[in-house]
Amino acid sequence: MFLTISTTGTPERPATDLGFLLHKHPGKAQAFSTSYGRAHVFYPEATDERCTAALLLEVDPLALVRRGKGGKGRGGAPDAALAQYVNDRPYAASSLLAVALSAVFSSALRGTCKALPERAGRPLPLRVEVPALPARGGPDLVRALFEPLGWTARVEPVPLDERFPDWGDSRYVRLVLDAPDGTLTLSEALRHLYVLLPVLDDAKHYWVSADEVDKLLRAGEGWLADHPEQKLITSRYLSRRWSLTREAMERLELVRLADADDSDVTEIDNAVNEDVDTEEQPVPLAVRRREAVLAALEAAGAARVLDLGCGQGQLVQALLKDTRYTKVVGVDVSMRALTVAARRLKLDRMGERQAERVELFQGSLAYTDKRLKGYDAAVLSEVVEHVDLERLPALEHAVFGSARPRTVLVTTPNVEYNVRWESLPAGHARHGDHRFEWTRAQFRQWAGAVAVRHGYEVAFAPVGPDDPEVGPPTQMAVFTRDERPTRNDRNNDRSNRSDQNRTKEVTAA
Question: Among the four 116, 141, 161, 392, which has the fewest Cβ within 10 Å?
Answer without folding.
Answer: 161
